Task: inverse folding
């Protein structure tokens, strides 16, 4: 982190002082865990021994994890979506570069599309009584419009960062 901002420097200094006050004994019951999607801008002082001692790269979800995420989200929807092929959704072509948050967001957006469809087609004022029918088309439409935030260069950068900081 460049120290252009005095407020950033003060926050970092306070944070480092607080971390130094935490006993690193495994018996004290305190675990400090940090996460970032911008590891290359971390101040080197954070990574010195005694602070964050271990760097662990958590990759985007693999096919099985994506399948589980889609299955969980579809189950939460509690609507008629049994006909949706979760293996198709979890395929590398459809969702291969999506993060877990993007998959969850896409499922929520697809459900919103289904709800809008129910409300738009409601002629008798009974829309609130009917559960929206989430279909493969809703998910396809949402996933087609989604541009993954992770790029190949970002993934390579994360992996290199982990290799440089392996203990």
Result:
């Amino acid at each position: 982190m460049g120290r252009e901002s005095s407020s950033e420097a003060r926050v970092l200094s306070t944070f480092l002082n607080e971390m130094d006050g935490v006993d690193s004994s495994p018996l004290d019951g305190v675990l400090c865990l940090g996460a970032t999607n911008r590891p290359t801008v971390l101040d080197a002082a954070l990574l010195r021994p005694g602070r964050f001692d271990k760097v662990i790269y958590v990759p985007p979800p693999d096919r099985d994890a994506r399948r589980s995420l889609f299955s969980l989200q579809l189950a939460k929807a509690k609507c008629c979506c049994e006909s949706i092929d979760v293996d198709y959704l979890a395929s590398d072509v459809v969702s291969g570069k999506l993060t877990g948050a993007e998959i969850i967001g896409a499922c929520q957006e697809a459900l919103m599309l289904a709800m809008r469809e129910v409300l738009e087609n409601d002629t008798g004022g009974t829309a609130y009584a009917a559960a929206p029918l989430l279909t493969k088309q809703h998910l396809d439409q949402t996933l087609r419009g989604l541009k993954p935030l992770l790029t190949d260069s970002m993934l390579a950068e994360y992996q290199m960062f982990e290799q440089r900081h392996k203990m």
User: Anything to note?
Assistant: The chain has a mean pLDDT of 82. The longest helix spans residues 100-120. The chain has two domains: 6-59+158-164, 63-149.
